[in-house]
Each structure stands twice: as C-alpha cells, then as structure tokens.
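Dear colleagues,

As part of the handover before I leave the project, I'm documenting each prediction I ran so the next person doesn't have to rerun anything. This entry is a single chain, and its sequence is reproduced below.
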Amino acid sequence: MERSEVIDAISRGRIVAILRGDFAGREVEIASTLFDAGLTAVEVTLNSRGALDAIGKIADRLGAKMAVGAGTVLHFHEVERVAMSGGSFIVSPNRDLRVIEATRRHDLVSIPGCFTPSEVLEALDAGADAAKLFPASVLGPGFVRAMLSPLPDVRLIPTGGVTSSNAGDYIAAGAWAIGVGSELVGRDVLGPDGLELLSARARSFVVSVRSEGANESKP
C-alpha cells in the first residue's frame, strides 16, 4: 500500500489491532479473522517472537486490502527492516524524532506515541501522520475531546486499556482510530475455539466504533 492508502485503510476501520507475543506462527490466520470481522489495520509488535517474519507473511496475504505495520518500534534502524519485510506503518510507544524521520524516509506512515499536546505537535512537525495517545486508560475520552478543541485536524489513536465498552466513547470524543491489544487479541486465540472467540470480540469492537459515528473520519 502507498502511504495515502494506509491512511485510508485505518480511516475506514478505525481500529488498529495489536498482536503482541508468541502466536505460534498463526498470525496470518489471526489477521484474516480480524479482516473478515471488519478490521482494516493490524500491527505486530517488534518485541514479539518472529515479528518481522509475521509482518511479511501478513503483508503477502492481506497487504493489498489491509494496512500491516509494526509496533513497539524503539530504534530508527528498525524502520528499514520493517519496510523490507513489507510493513506499511510504524507505531512506537514514545516520540523519537529519529524514528519519525526514518519512517518518512522509507515512505511509511508514522504513528509515534505521545502523552501531551506539546509532544503531539512536535511529532507532527517532525512528519508524523498521527499520534498514538498512550496509555489511553490514564487520559480517557475527555482528554481526546479537550485536545481536539484547539487542534481539530490532528489524528489521535488512543491505545492502552481501550475495550469494546469504551471504544465508542473515544470515537465519539473525536479519536481518528483506536489501538487495541490484549483486550482483542489474547492468548485464547490459540485454543480450539480461539478464532471464533476472536471474531466475536472483533465484531463487538466494530459495532462499538461504528455506533459512535465512525463514518466521520478525519482526512
């Protein structure tokens, strides 16, 4: 996907699913289940076993219709490895200007982690496409609404503690998308009924997001 297509994909689904941990080589199955449930973006964190290989396999299978990226990108030299693996966006828990610069140099979508208005603006000035608000559980939907009052065009992705019961609150507050990890993709996906459970949870998130005006995407 081109950068604009990645942004469009995230805008359509409004949910970035986060795969963190060892999923025993079943990442493609998991991503396919998420896509069938209505999700259009997935990230594999680099502190997961076989992360780059998983990103490559998911991108090969689903990259034409689903944004596939890397999370927990802490060092600028990791960006090139993600790009070579087929990843299309970079997510970090922190705001490292070198990572942002490397992401733009490789023409990937940049989503650094931020916590304050100053960090968000500094990230955007450095070339970031969106800001991951982390941890969202500490900030809450009210923070998103307050942040967007003076900065209405900023793409914010609350992440950390977002559940199907409060996902809609973040969207209603103006979040561009939400990031969801273990609340969606837990270890139970490896069980005998794991993919069915995953599908049900994913659809619950999709319903929550869409019920709160998910069609009103930011450009």
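Residues 194-210 form the longest helix (17 residues). The chain has nine helices and nine strands.

All the best with the project,
I.
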